[in-house]
Amino acid sequence: xxxxxFALAILFSIFSALMERRKRRKRLEEAQQQHAxxxQQHAxxxQQHAxxxxxxxxxxxxxxxxxxxxxxxFDGDPFEEPVLAEVDPAEAEREAxxxxxxxxxxxxxxxxxxxxxxxxxxxxTETKSExxxxxxxxxxxxxxSHWFLTPQTARDAIVYMEILGKPKSEREEW
Length: 174
Known about the structure:
Elements: H1 2-52, H2 89-138, H3 151-164
């Protein structure tokens, strides 16, 4: 029974979509006929006016009314096959070659920029290393660091941290 209801629902949705499509096609044909009639009336009015006053053209504004659509919210008919534009193979190949040429040109510019950056970096490191060498000669070196760490001092630091620091339960893990 449920299967029958499901099949009926599917058939009803297909039928309503086809009827909506038919209604839209009819509306489109009517709009085209009205447009053709309006064009014909405009031509007749212009012809009559040209006979009466050939110097001044007649300007007639056309009022366009948009009809609200409640069916398919997207452009086009969902049941029509998409129309693919014909592409000239020679033109497509020409576009592909042009795109490849542009890509190669961009890659070449990137390589030149990278090479220039590497040269600047080499010059900069050379001048820095020479400056550092000269600075080392001028100032005396310290023989011993202020914080000299041996295995014994490291053990003592851990013991003092356990005694003086926060309890393990209150510490944040690093």
